[in-house]
Structure formats: structure tokens, C-alpha cells
Structures
1.
Amino acid sequence: MKDLAGAVICALVGLPSADRAELARAFAAGTAMTSMVRLGRPRLTPSQVARCRSVLADLTAPAVRAYADGDPSTVPGRMRELGLTESEALGAVAAFVLTGTETLVSYVPRLIALAIDTGWLARLSLDRTRLDDVVNEGLRFTVPSPVMLRSVARDAFVGGKRVKAGERVVIATISCAKTLGPFDPDRPHSPALRQLWFGAGAHFCLGMPLAYAEIRTVLETLLGLDGLSIVERRVARRVLIPAYERLVVRCG
Ligand code: HEM
């Protein structure tokens, strides 16, 4: 999943395609940054900021070339065409690298484990029309991006609660989604939840269609294989987004 999500992002943002070791190194650098985020602490320390800046400068350096080349099939090239500056383009590249990999690296193995554990993978082999129900219910049940963080710009009331300027608000999407109960793709999708796991409003996930394309690609590939079983699983520790550190699936 790291290879797939990493390669897709590289192609999208105009970074040269990297080998497995480089993708793994870039992924580790990204999770080292996101793991610095603490729910109760609204800011990074100056040394953390310096570390993040240097890691991001390293990760996005090749995008400077993509911006200079101006190829509109890449994000930096398109942004240049639209009149945005190089630093704005690099900001977008950094956002894509961070948002477009860890979420999928977390979600897809969790979805596969859920589908195997609950017998849904076998059911899908017989009836692929239910694939989207399984994918959407898996997103609802796992909520790969479990919370959204906001800072309060000025004193206000939100949903009847008083919030003060400078405070941090943690929107626990996972709590909202989990109220529906256990993983059950047969349950009709609740319109009230919309697709809260992709956010809401102005910051709704920009990569949702890409995420679906990658998730479906992996699931459809697995459906073409016989007798899948999980032979090893290990949960990742000290990460912002819950994930398996290792999930080994055997075929046949
Ligand atoms: C299962 C996979 C994914 C999930 C669950 C997910 C979830 C989310 C959520 C909840 C937000 C809103 C965060 C907030 O408001 O604080 C968001 C924003 C965003 N996502 Fe995703 N995402 C996924 C995959 C991707 C992919 C593959 C990309 C590809 C580039 C991507 C790009 C973005 C970007 C750029 C934003 C920021 C949008 C903005 O602030 O205007 N996401 N995502």
C-alpha cells in the first residue's frame, strides 16, 4: 500500500518515481511529522517546526523542477499555469504527500482484514455489486482520519458551547460515525452521516475520488485470488492514524 499510494502521489505531483526503499523512507519521514501532532497541544515546538520544514524541503525539492517545467499534467505545473507562486505549489505538494498516503496506508489493510474476518471478502467474490457498500461501511467503521482539528479564531458559540479565541477544537468524527454500531455493509447508509470520514465544508477531502480509485483497485485485485487468509498482523504503535504495521495475507 505504501508503494501504491506513494507511486500515485509521485506521479500526481511530478516527483520522479521512486524505488521501494525511497518510498518507504519518504513515508517514514511523513509519519514522523504527523506523529508529532498531539490532540491537547495546539502548536508544535520551534524545534519540531524546524525539523518538519527540513523534512518537507527534502520531500518536495523535486517538485521545484516540476513547477519550473510547467507541465500541466502535474499539480505544480497546473498551479503555475493558474498563476500561483512556487511556494504555494510546494505547499500543495506537501499537503498531497502527507494526506494522500498515510490515510490509505492505514485504511486499505484495515478494510482487507475486516473483509476477510467477517466473511465479506468471500461474499464479494460471488457478488461484486456490493463492493462499494463494503468500502463505504469500512470507511464508516474505521474512520481513517479519526479526528479533525481546528483553532478558534475568535470567541463564539458552536452548537451551544462557548469557545474562546486560541482554544483547540477536536472534532471527533470517529465518535459520530461509530454510534451506528458494528461493521455491517447490509445496514442502509445513514444520510445523516453523509461522508463525514472525508470531512465537511470548505476543507472536504480533495482526494476522495483518487482514494476510491486506489481502494477499489486493491480490493478488485484481491477478489481475483483464491483462498485468502491472514497469517500475521501487528498493530502500529505511536502513530497519529491507527494502522497495521504489518498485515500478511496468504493466497491459496
Ligand atoms: C481513505 C482515504 C482518505 C480519507 C479518509 C481522507 C480524509 C480526509 C479528511 C477527513 C479531510 C478533512 C480534514 C479537515 O477538515 O481537517 C481531508 C482533507 C484533505 N484530503 Fe483527504 N482523505 C483520504 C485520502 C486522500 C487522498 C488520496 C488525497 C490525495 C491527494 C487526499 C487529499 C486531501 C487534501 C489535499 C485535503 C485538504 C483539503 C483542504 O483543506 O481544503 N486525501 N481528507
2.
Amino acid sequence: MRKEIQVKITYKKGIHTRVAAMIVQKCQDLMRKYQCKLFIKRDRDNSVIPGNSMLALVSMKIVEGETIHVFSDSDHTSEAVDEFSRFLGGAFLLEQCNLDEIDNIIQNNTLASEKVFDSIVNGLIVVDHNNVISVFNKAAERITGIGAKEALGKEANDIIDTSKLYEVLKTGREQIAFKQKIGNSTIVTNRTPIIADGKIIGAVATFQDISELENLSSELRSVQDLQQRFQHILENVDDAICMLDKYGTITYVNPAYERIMKIQQEEVVNKNIGEISPAGIRMQVLKEKTPQFGRIIRKGNGTEIIANVSPIIIDGEMNGVVSVSKEITEIKRLAEKIEELSAKTKYLQEELSKKHEINKSFDIIVGKSGVLLEALAVASKASETDATVLIRGESGTGKELVAKGIHYASNRKNKPFIRVNCSAIPHNLLESELFGYEKGAFTGAVKQKLGKFELADEGTIFLDEIGDMDKEMQAKLLRVLQERELERVGGTKTIPISVRVIAATNRNLEEMVEQGAFRNDLYYRLNVIPVMLPPLRQRKGDIPIIVEHFIEKICSKYGMQKKRIGKEVLSYMEAYGWPGNVRELENVIERILTLSREEIITVRDLPAYIGVDKEEKSFRETAVAVKEEDDEIPTLEEVEKALLALALKKHKSFHSAGKALGITHKTVAAKARKYNLI
Ligand SMILES: Nc1ncnc2c1ncn2[C@@H]1O[C@H](COP(=O)(O)OP(=O)(O)OP(=O)(O)O)[C@@H](O)[C@H]1O
Ligand SMILES: [Mg+2]
């Protein structure tokens, strides 16, 4: 019969690690000596373990006073059982044992538990009661990206700042299935306290990386979202859409399909196309796997549609068919609308280009404003004819430039352009200047001289400042213009002339006609095509490009490096009235460019009178034009300063300025000093 011996454990601390190692060592000796296996049964619950299993023995947690049974696997080894039971009942003195071997057993078993921890796929972190990490397995390393060497012996929160093990240590309560972020990973973790003898001696966290799961679920969400959007689009488009699977079964039709085909979806969905439309295009595409575009079909119900049908091919495999159709009546209506609109657009474009068709010869005239372009368009049109042109405009607006533009745009361009300044030539000389004279016509006429009209023959004569011509000369000019022939002064023969006449003036001819200073008939003879050049103040938008143009022109004229102009300077220039128009602007720029040494022109370089307008304007704006709806209200001081400046400008003396403002001249003087106005 198998021998079993009951043993009472008398050792005070029960069977803990070191004692277990001693037992295992003894057991191994006996098993070798007696060639048998020895077992321990715990009486408390009849559980049986091999006597040489260190981990099993420790985990049995046998305490002092507990009874166990010892037995072997054969009937012939009662001596082994005797010896083993004696050992177990003893006092476990260390000296009785081979210390090296005990250390080895403990070491091997520790290693074994480390191996166990490392082979777990979940992360495992164990802390002691001070929250100091004692176990940090391989999976924990992988998930957290932190090495065990770095983690062991450190406080959990120093290593993972989001760790909540300290809470578990404090409360003794477990935390199950908590989601938490560690670096870029999302983990789900269980945290449990380790309790021994009713005391919390540590805590353990096991966790799993669910980042991939999270990514997958967010991908799933976006796919669902996308699907919903597509669904929404399909339901709301005006095109009839029908989808078939690879077997030809209709899987989907949208509401537009129901409307256009006058059919309910229940009547077609889940039916096969072979039943519904065996000879149709969808069937054809299903069989041939090639798309069909723009096919026009007349339906049985009279609807005419245009259809695009395509195979759905995924990874080279036929997966179904989709058809997109439109009612053709709608398309026809749209096509007509497009035709109508494009005809209108074409007409408007033609009109527009007619309006601004300006000959290249006018490119020398800088400006993009509507008023200028309109004038140039008229001049350009005039250049195509021989008609007389009367150019009007204030001084410096470019009348001479336009006259030249007309000449060089006309087919007289290779013939002379002769300018006569009617105001610069004394009245008594103007006639011979214009029409020439014969030898001996008057004292000093030692030889024949051709007049400007003859010099301009086949070309253009530009009668500048025509408003300054005296009335006698006006009559003579009128005759030449009417007859198209002239007689030289002192001559008798008439000379035919073919000249295009352009006249210009900055004077108010209509008023002169009324006052009798200019001949009515000559006025009408000259004013065949009037060209009105706008003053610069009416086209301030052109100032920046004109300034740029002159900077370039003048810098290259003087071989200077190109200078730049500050924004503020432009705003001053735009505020100024330019009575001398473009000529004045050109002079100002030339003056600035030659006087300033800086690379950038600033307000300080401007002549003082240009700034005045702007400053006065801003004073006026500040002083007078404060309205309720204004965003920014000036301060009282600003208004006072502006009012004072205005009064001083108007009244010149402190006394009268003070009278106007209702204060004493002393106050005016004091305030003027305060605001640096004097
Ligand atoms: N739009 C412009 N673009 C470029 N330069 C211009 C322009 N208008 C005028 N100018 C220049 O301004 C100056 C004056 O032009 P122009 O002599 O043609 O003026 P005007 O109208 O004949 O003046 P006035 O009545 O004083 O004779 C010229 O140097 C001319 O080149
Ligand atoms: Mg001129």
C-alpha cells in the first residue's frame, strides 16, 4: 500500500520562498536517491503538488500549524517518504542546507516568473506600496515605448505621468477597463491592488494597446460618414441613377430615377435587368463590359433621355453597372439658354471692344480711367477719317500728344505733322507763317517762303491755341478750310492743298463765340469731331501709373538708378488739385527726382504747396465733418487744433481768428503755440 505521512508544519513563518527552496532542494535529493517522485497534499483542500515545484509550493501558502500529507509515486519508497516528512516537520535551519543550491533554486524560479510575465501579450506593471515599479514586462515596454531598465525602481508617475496606480494604492479599489493615452497609443487597463494579510502591499496594472482598434473604428466611422454623404448626394441629384450588381440584379435606384422613369423603386429593385429591359443599354454594358456614353433613348412612356452607362470594375473584375440618365427636354432647354446667352455675350463683347478700340499710336498717352479712354476712343476713330478734329482740355492735359496720336494713327503718318502755335506768333506774321509769301511781298521778303499749310501737304497741320487767333486771321483760315486752296501772301495763283486739320485750345470757345471773339462759322468748321480731354483731378486713379511712367522716363533720361515712391506721397498727390494737370505732375516728379538723394521719395521731398491741400483737407475733415455715423470720433484736442489751424489760415491775425472763434487773441496765441501752429 502507498505510504502517506501526515506532517504538521511548525515553522513559524510558514512555507515562504526560502523555505520552499530548501524543501525543493531536499525533495530533488531524495528523488535522485530513491528514484521516485514525491508529492505534497494540502489537507485544507486536498490539493496536490509535486514536492520539487518551487512556484507551486510557494503559491500554496502553507502556514504554521497547518497539516499536509507527504507521499510518493511507488509503494517501495517509504524511506523517501519518511525522510521527506521528517524534513518537512523540522525547523528549516539554513546551515543544514546547501546554500548555493538554494540560491540557484530561488534564482531559477524568479527567472521563471519573469519569463512568465514576459510571455504575456498584455502589458504588466507591478508597483510596491510606495508606488515604485517592481515589474515591467516586455509587452509594457512595447506598448509604452519605455525600457524596463529605465522603469524599474522608479515611481510609476515619473515614468508614466497618466498612471493611476497611486489611486489604487490609496483607495484599495480596483479600476477595471479604463481607457488611457500613453504617448501616441490608446490603451485599456485594469488596475488592481495587491493585498496581503489585509494590507495593501502593492498594485498591478495589466493593459492592452487598442490604438489599432481605435483607428479602425474611426476609419469605420469615416466610411459610414462617406456613405451617408454619397447616399445624400444620390438622393438629391437631378440625374436618374440606377445600379446593378454583377449578376444584373438592380440594387438601387434614386428618387430622380423614379421621377424620370415614372416608376416606383419597389417595381424594379431586386429584379433582374434581363426581366426589366433585356435589350437595353444596361444589359449590353453588363455583357460587353464597355461603357456607353451619350446614348439617346425614347422610353415607352414618351420620355426622351440621354444615358451614360458604365461598368463598375474593381481590381480588374466586373462588379456591376451604373447608369446615369437625364431627361433630354431639360438639356434641350439648357442648350437653347446657353446659345442665347453666348450670343448676348458675343454682342456685348463686340460693343465693348468697339468702344475701347484705341490705336497703338495712342499708347504714349498714359491712363486707364474711363473718361480718358472714352476721349481716346473718339480720337482713334477720328484718325481713320480725314475729318477735322477739335481737341479741348485744360492746359497740360495732353492735347498735343493726342494730336500727334491722331496723325500717327492715320494713313498720313508717313507725311509731315506740322504744329503752329497760333498764340506765339504775332498777328501780323501769322498769315505768312501759315500760307507763305512770294518774293517781294513785303519789305524783307527777299525770297519765296512756303507756309505751314504747304509744308504739311498730304500730312496734318496742328493749329494749337486756336482760341488765341485774331478775328481777321480767323476769316482767312475759314476761307482756306472751305476752299481747300490758298494764296501765298503777295501771290496771285491759288495752290490746292490736301491737309488734315487738327485744332486745339484750352479756352472756352463757346463763350468766345457768344461774346463775338471767335467766329461762329469757323467754330463749326473746326468742331467736326470734338475730343474732350479730362483734367487730372477728374481721373486721380491714373496718378500712380502716370507717376511710375515719369519716374521711369526721367530716371532713364538722366541715367539715374530708378527711385521708388512712398505710398503716403501718392496720397498727398491724389489730394492735390493739379491745376497744371499732367505737365505739372511731370515737372514735380522731375524736380523731386533731381533734388532728392534718397532712394525712396518721401513726403518731405514734395513741394510744400502740395502738402497744404491735403493737410487743410484733413483739418477740415476733422474740424467740420464729424458725423453721427462715423466710427471714430476725434478727440476734443484734435478738433480744437484743426479749428484753430483753419481759423488762422483764413484770418491771418490772432485778433480776427479769435473773433471768429469767439475767444480772445491771447487764447488764440497760447493755443496756437501749444499746437505748434506758429
Ligand atoms: N496722359 C498723358 N500721358 C503721358 N504724358 C502726358 C499725358 N498728358 C500729358 N502728358 C505730358 O504732359 C505734357 C503736356 O502735354 P501737352 O503739351 O500735350 O498738353 P496740352 O494739353 O497741349 O497743354 P497746353 O494747353 O498747355 O498746351 C507733355 O510733356 C506730355 O508729354
Ligand atoms: Mg499744348
3.
Amino acid sequence: MIYSYLLGLFSSILREQANLTHDGPKWIVLDGDIDPMWIESLNTVMDDNKVLTLASSERVALTPSMRLLFEDRVKDSSGESPSLKETLQHPLDTLMESRDSPGNPFPSGDPSPPPVWFNFRSESHSSQAVKRTSQTFRRRTHGWLQNSYVASWIDRRQHQSEKANLTILFDKYVPVCLDKLRTSFKTITSIPENSLVQTICTLLECLLTPENVPSDSPKEVYEVYFVFACIWAFGGTLLQDQLSGYQAEFSWWWHKEMKAVKFPSQGTIFDYYLDHKTKKFMPWADKIPQFMMDSDAPLQRVVVHTSETTRLRYFIELLLEKGQPLMLVGNAGVGKTVFVGDMLASLSEDYIVSRVPFNYYTTSAALQGVLEKPLEKKAGRNYGPGGNKKLIYFIDDMNMPAVDLYGTVQPHTLIRQHIDYGHWYDRQKVMLKEIHSCQYIACMNPKVGSFTINPRLQRHFTVFAFNFPSLDALNTIYSQILSFHFQQQAFASSVLRSGPTLIQATIAFHQMMTRNFLPTAIKFHYLFNLRDLSNIFQGVDSRVLLQQPLIYCHFANGREDPCYMPVKDWEVLKTFLTETLENYNELNAAMHLVLFEDAMQHV
Ligand SMILES: Nc1ncnc2c1ncn2[C@@H]1O[C@H](COP(=O)(O)OP(=O)(O)O)[C@@H](O)[C@H]1O
Ligand SMILES: [Mg+2]
């Protein structure tokens, strides 16, 4: 619900329904964050008056066959006004008293159901009635939601033997994994459990094709595929950084507990992909594409493929094909933006990509403008990308926009509305627009902005953690870049030989920096990432390396403020040193130095 034009929209829908003459039930579903500003204007609709008074003093009365259904996640109520609680309290209390089955909006044999219904999911709320309602909902829907999703997914599979195998496998693996995840591991951002389970289904849907798994396959084959999907749905979301290595721990745990499907013992379970031909696990390292670099491209935009990027790419390509929303979550400067940019640039011509970088000031209206730009009007109220193409919105830094006074990030509600319902409204004409053939890929850094996003939006996305590259990967990235560069510029062989040492020294130095200069509340800028590393190598240029003299000192600029800079030429240095020597000789016992080049290098 986007409340900048809500009342226009809401009042026009209300008026439309009030004017309908038939007495069949009419529902208005209000799906989204409830905030006190607009709920207050609905006060008279929700109490016994059942009348909406508009600013123009027009009055629209609810007819007996009209119902409002509110759907929301109940947030922590600390920021909510007393009037919101009161407004909600009254209908909820009547609801609780009058009904023994609060989850059912269509109770049988009830001649006059109340006009307002709620469908809430809640973690905490101080209003007792809301708490009670939401608990009832949770009890009824929680386990049920997961299983019913899985059950209906399995039901849609074609072959009987596959259905039977999958049912056994879900029971065998999923509850154990969820349990372990709850108690021992941490995902990179908070992800609803149901969404993890959905990811398994989505991955299986991509993997269990008739070519990979013909319908008469033995149960062992289903199990290998299931295991592959399961470790990526769960393990792919786990946090792995300097302080905690949940992916590594997950891998140990898996090796220890899940023995039915054998993994090679070297490395972690995340180092292997499932080979469709042999049904064996093979190292991702074998699949890394050859490095190609455009020598004109700025280094900041170059991507060197590593086994980490290769495996992410594999899954992203699988899921993009299905139109599944995707999200990469990782700290600043780990390479999310360049990686997604590189991947989207290599897609076939069937796709159009629209880049939508978010920042603090992104509003839902501005976002809608950007989202609508690549769309064309089709028949009726339908809109979509031109031709038969598919449009990918690349939302970068998803969690950056401002959180409003009542805890809502308005651009997020627009995206959720689109994913949930496939539509949004024309803001001027207050008319529905159906938006087709679009999908989302998003990135975010869980340490900035609003940190997390609304779980009702988050749940749609398949999440992969994008962790800082391993030592091996760092080595690969910079060796490839450096050796390409050295070849291009025809460096002397002595320089070529020093390449690996240079990289090792840089990486070791980077590690020392990150270990010794930890960010704190005050020194929050102590973040050292791939941007710093890339900046070092960006500077490596033949003019610099072969420059004579290759001397850096803090008095390169003479008597000005000390600053560590390269010496421009011998003459300047010589004049400065001679002067300094003369000064010294005046004040101290004379020192007779002859300043020739070697001596100066020594200084
Ligand atoms: N696989 C890679 N190969 C080469 N450079 C990389 C790679 N991954 C990251 N980088 C470097 O890291 C820098 C930061 O990446 P960026 O995508 O801006 O990070 P994020 O979006 O995660 O904050 C890039 O400018 C790039 O130079
Ligand atoms: Mg970025």
C-alpha cells in the first residue's frame, strides 16, 4: 500500500463497490504496513458508523455486503500511536469474542460477519488481542504453511515414483537442517524459514529435468540431486567472514551427519558441483571460465572468475531462467555489483536489463518512474518490455532507502506489490496496470542502511551469501590481472618474476590491516576490502615501475609538510640533500659526504 495516493485509490474503490447493487460479498483487501496516519482516517469506517468521510465532505457508507480485509505483519509496536492500537483493538476484540475460529473469514451459519478482518503474522505486539489473534494464526499456519507448500509442490510433479522419493527426502533432510540452522548457524541476513524451503523446491525444479533424471531413475539419483539442492538452499545463505565461518561449520556438520551421499573429503561441500552425466561431485574449479580482459576497461569493472563466482553464476543462471527473484547479500566491496553487472552483460538478447541503484533518497514514486521507463503499453491495462523480451531489474543496494516514521520502506512496498500481485497503480489516473515479463535481481549489504528488509518482501528472494573471496580466490584474481597487464606492457622478465611476491605481499598487508584495524563505532570507516586491493593494482603501471629514480621518501617535496611521495628527479633531491647537509654541518661537527647517486639511494 502506497499511502501518498492511498486515499484517492481507496476511496474510489470503496465508492465503486458501494455503488454495486447486487448483494453478493465484496471484499477490499488492504495488504501492507498499517500506519496510524491513514488508519485514523478509516476510524469511522471501522467503528459502528461504517462510513467514510472524504476531505470533500462526501460521505460513502459501507453496504452490508462489503468487507475490508487487512493483511499485515505486526511489527514491534514501540513506534505506533495509541490511536492505532485503539482502532485495531475494537474490531479485533469483537472478532475474538464473536468467533471461535478467528482464522476463518467465511464462517458458516453466521448471518452477520463483522465488516473488518485481519490476517496478521506477528513476532511481538503489545495489544493483547492482536497477540492472541496472531498466535492463533501462527499455530494454524506455521508448520502447515511449510508442509502444504512442499506438499502441493510435490503434487505438481509428474511421476508417481518421483513424488514418493521426494516426500521421503523432504522428511529426511529438511527438519534436521532447519533445526540445526536455528540452533547453530547464522544466515547472512534474516531469511524466513519457509523461504529456505521454497528455495529447495525451486532448485529441484531446475535440476530434476527429464534429461538429468529420467522418470525411472533409482532413488539414489533423486537423493544426490536433493542433497545438492539442500546444501545450497541452506548452506548458500550462511555467513562466512573474519570472525565466523558458518559455511565451513555447516560443511563439517554435513560430512559428519549426512553420510548417504558421499562427498570428496578435500575442502568443503561447497567446492563441488553435481555432474549430470556421472552423478558424481566434481570440483567447481574445473568449470572456471578463461579470464579475458579488455585492456581499456578500468580495473574497477573487471571480474576475474574464481570458483566462488563460478558456482554463484551457475545457480543464478538456473534461477533466472525460471524468473525466480534473487538476492546476493554481502559486505561492502566484496564484488557484488561488478559480478552481477558482468553476468547480466553476458545474457542473451532475450533479456533487457534495467539497473536500479537505490540510495537513501529513493522514494516509491521515483522508483515507479524508473521501473516504468523500459515498459511498453500492450493491450488493455497490460504493460511489459518491448517484443517478446524479458526484463530484469537489477536493484542494487536494496536496503539503502530511508525507513519512514512508521517503519515502512516505501520503495520496498511497491516491489512487493509487484511480485505478489503482478501489478501497480497509475498514480494520476488511479488505475490498475498489470506488469508482465519482469523479474528482479537484488544486492544488499547487511551492515548498512536499514540492515534488513521487510520479511514479506525478503521471503520472495532466493538468497546467496556473497562472502569476501578466500585467499586462493584473491590470489587468482590479482595474479590474472597482473600477468595480463605485464604481458600487455611487455615488462622485463625480472619484473614478471616479482609478480607473485607482489601479490602475496599485498594480500598479507591487507590481512594485517583488517586484523589490526578493526572497525569500531567511531572508526567505522576502517573497512578494507577488494576496492583497496584493486586500487593498489590499478596503480601498477610501467611508467611507475620503470621510473628512475624509484625512490619514495617523506621529504620528496623539500621542506613542505612531510608527505610520502616519489622523488621526481635526481637534481631536486640532490639540492635538498646538499642544503640539509650544509645546515647540519653548521650546527654539528662537520660531516664530509660526497653525494653521488648511490649515496642518495642509500639516504
Ligand atoms: N572477481 C573479481 N575480479 C576482479 N575484481 C574484483 C572481483 N571481485 C571484486 N573485485 C573488485 O572489487 C571492487 C569492489 O566491488 P563492488 O562490486 O563495487 O563491491 P560491492 O558491490 O560488493 O560493494 C571492484 O571494483 C573490483 O575491482
Ligand atoms: Mg555495490
4.
Amino acid sequence: MDNVEIKATQLSERVYMLTGMGGNIGVYVGDDGVVMIDAQYKGLADKISAAITEISEQPIKTLVNTHFHADHTDGNAAFARKGVNVVAHDNVRARLAANSDFDAVGLPKMTFKQMHSVDTGDASIKLTHYPNGHTDGDIIVWFPNSNVIHAGDLFFVDRFPFVDLNAGGNVQGYIDNVRAVVQQLDADTQIIPGHGGLSNRDDWIRLVDMMEATRAEVMAMKEQGMTEDEAVESGLSEQWADWSWNFITEERWIRTLYK
Ligand SMILES: [Zn+2]
């Protein structure tokens, strides 16, 4: 953590993207205070706070979690201790509360099921839940008056996505959710992905196109009677090699698709 640098990029008058280690952070500077989306790791909380202070002298008022994974929520408690109100989907709170390693001070105080608006004094940030994709608590964050959204981990840029099958994730749901969101975007929409650089609609469509194409390859192997291990052994076609990365390797992606 000592070597991690938090870098801020301004995307619109009031919206910023922060990168460090873990899920990308979104920042909205409201008239009533700052709203941050995701918190990365607790060891980075001071650096993240400092980076936000550079952007605005307003206090951080609200922290929204896009889902429950630690690389987005581990910093929750550090911000909650400073009086920041943590907001997330109902299932995020339930999963964090069930994890004895999670600092309970950082549990979301405000939760919701379908949709929630965060009032910022000048406008509202809209949070919408999409069921069973990356996890069972994923939300999309719609920043007002800016054509910018935070996609959480429904968006991994040009790499195989993590679909958390043990936490309500589902490949078909992931594809359906992304298709439903991209319909509402235009070519100029700036998308903060969970992992990867600032992206656009076409980048996101490329992800779900890849998911469908690789799934078809794995389903064909399955229909030929191959076991999961045999499918891994056989591998995907060469064109997908670049999507493999250290966390979701080709092997892990094939196993996810096969399941
Ligand atoms: Zn995640």
C-alpha cells in the first residue's frame, strides 16, 4: 500500500475518477458535500481522503458501495468513523455483516432494494440495482448532468470478468444486465469501470460480445461430452488470449462458463 498512488482524473464539472489499488473510485462534488463511490482498501483511506480534499474542501458526506467485494469496501470503516454515511444494496449489507473479518463500523447504514437517490444539494445521484450479475448486490451509479456512470464490477475492461458464482453472480445475468444498461447510454457516455481505465459504450459491448462468444465455445465443448477439465485442456480459440489476466485466467474463465 505504501507505494500506491491515488490519481484523480476530472471527467466533468463535478465528477472525478480516482485510481489506486482495487476498484476504481468515483467522486461527485455536490453543493452539500462530496459523494464517493467505493473505497478500495483501508490502508489507502488516508491517501484517498487527501486526494478528495485536493478536489474539494467540502466534507465527504456519503460513500456508496457498488457491491460487497473487499477491494471496494475494505475502506468503509475508515470513512464511516469520520461520519460518512455508507449506502449500498440490501444484499451488500447482508454479505458484509456475515463476514466476521469485516469491520462492522463500515456496514452500510442506508440500504435499498431496487433504486435509491442520493441528494447532493444541487442534484441527485441515481443508484439502480441489477440482479445476479457479478454478485447479487450490484448497482449502477448514474451521475447527474454529466453523462457519466460508475459501472462497478459489471465492467472489467478488456479482460475476463469475475463472475462470483458463490455470491449470486451469474454469467447470463451479467450479460443481460450490461445489455440493459448500454441501451440507456450514448456514444459520449463516460464509464468508470470497476477495473480498467475510463471507457465508453463500445468498450463495454466488446466485453459482453466476448462473454457470449467464449460461452458458445465452452457450451459446444460441453455438448461434445467434454468434462470441465477437458474443456480447460482444450482451451478457447486464440483470439481471446489477450483477455486472460492474473486473477481471471483463461482456465478460470472456462471453469466459470462451464459451471
Ligand atoms: Zn468485485
